[in-house]
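Quick one:
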Amino acid sequence: MACAQVTVVGSDVIILCDEKWTCCQREQAKAKTEVYQSNQPLQIRPTPSASAKAKVDAEKSACQKSDGAKMIKEMPAGADKWATSPCLADQMKKDWAAGKKSVDSLGVQMDHQQDWKVGGATKQPLKALDTKINNFFGTTVAKAQGDKMLADGKTQMKKVHLVCKPPCTPPHDAANTDFSTKDAPPYPSSPAATLTSPKRALK
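Output:
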């Protein structure tokens, strides 16, 4: 399996790392998942009406713009404060020194750590998160999987795990070989096992 996937066992969500994610991207995905875990169970919101959605989107965008501007004013010293994980802070400092001095050029987005779809507020302290990881969690995990779970009559993500297959590259932390979250089930041995291995592990 190469691409990141999401498996649901009951109301538990198991995120399988993309094997191409770098060690730093995995570290950020782990930090994001741990925020989800700290707020379990996550209440899944249904898709709002067009007018309500416009209001939510506007509030989220304003918060992102505001916090993005604050972060840029505080860079590079503020990288440790704003980055989702330590490795991202290091990368942001290097990129800033190389002349990348906007949110977009730094390769990040201002992330609502608990996405609105799974109970997060539109106005909350944001963190800089790798664009690819942010899009995956916002689109694939929160929205797509959330809507699917609602369609199946499930209103909560009761537990959320991140499961990664070692090794990751380039290595940057000898203490972590894969960045799976604590108590995560084992990584499936093959794509065909994605619906069975996590189930056995969670029993």
